[in-house]
Amino acid sequence: MNGNGRPRLAYVVNSLHPGGTERLVVDMSRAFGADYEIEVICLDEPGAWADTLRQSGIAVYCLWRQGGLDLSMPVRLARHFRRSRPDIVHTHQCTPWFYAALSRLLYARPRLLLEEHGRFYPEADKPLRRLLNRWLVRHLTHRFVAVSADIRERLVRYEGLNHSQIEVIYNGVKPVPAIDETARAHRRAQLGFSERDFVVGTVGRFDPIKNLPMLVGALAAARRQHDDVRGLLVGDGPIRGDVERLAASSTEAGSIVFTGHREDARTLVQCLDLFVLASFSEGTSMALLEAMSAGVPVAVTAVGGNPEIVVDGATGWLLPSGDEHALAEAISQARTDAIVRRERGLAGMRRFSEHFSFDAMIERYGALYAQLLPNGGLAATRAKI
């Protein structure tokens, strides 16, 4: 506890570059800021959203981790925690968890929580890591959370954790503020789309795991049947140039619009007639939840946590991973059948409200934090933003 009686909560993350995990850290920091003294520790580099949090009065620190196994990290984290004295350390993803757990060998005061968001693709089976986690790291950790049942199974298989110890808490997002038809038409026109265009796209980081070439190929195939199909890809990342070159070589000039990173991405998702997630692997996609909250119909690969979110044939389309033809067929069906498109969009909105709201997620974490604090700590409260 600090001088004003509020417990201290530290989030540890690789960085605050725009992405789903990082977005969740920002939103959770703000949500719990009224009841906890919050700080965010970035292992690698601050990232673009560090200043966003600092402007909200939340302290952000960076430790500038070296490449490979940086054994100075546990020492530096322990030194930092000894100064800031957090009651709870909430680590996002396994690398921050590993270093924060080892720091407890030097400074054991904080209660430690792992939240795993996603996994590498393909998974690397490392028996030595599993053994170290099973015999040491998990014993330095108080609670384990996976953002989907699929992620829980992967933590058991690849990280050596016990299934019974891992709680599933699905990610939640705030509903996307709705824009009316006039505003939507204006936004689409600004992006270069006409009223008759059928706009298919996605929002997220341009990373190999997102399999954006599958989306580009499916768009090209769908355009051969329907010349009004257009693409909208919102985001940035290490393979953006490769994806743009692929689009230029396989589709007509201008048929796919690339916006780069946009702070208004949550609004732009409403410009889509169909949201697509072609990933090789997913935890609980924030962009997918935002599309569903806005009533945008969705087509996603049946990987990771996606089948736990999207009900095939009811709230969207579930497709085999890597099946470009199946995605092109889904785009064509959505394009030609407005009734199915509308029904699945509305059903997705209802499913979002019932299972994936931001408030429900915050309540779950609030209760978990209360259990970790001495004597039960604070009663779990709803977010105050």
Description:
There is one protein chain. Helix 11 links the parallel strand 11 and strand 12 (298-301). This protein has helices spanning 20-31, 50-55, 73-84, 94-103, 127-135, 149-159, 181-190, 212-225, 240-250, 265-268, 286-293, 306-309, 324-336, 338-355, 358-372; strands spanning 8-15, 37-45, 59-62, 88-92, 111-116, 143-146, 166-168, 198-203, 229-234, 256-260, 274-277, 298-301, 316-319. It contains 15 helices and 13 strands. Helix 3 packs across helix 4 and helix 8 (212-225) runs parallel beside helix 9. By secondary structure, it is of the alpha/beta class. The protein has a 7-stranded parallel β-sheet, with helices on both faces. It has a 6-stranded parallel β-sheet with strand order 10-9-8-11-12-13, with helices on both faces. The chain has 2 domains: 8-172 and 357-376, 3-Layer(aba) Sandwich (Rossmann fold), CATH 3.40.50; 181-355, Rossmann fold.
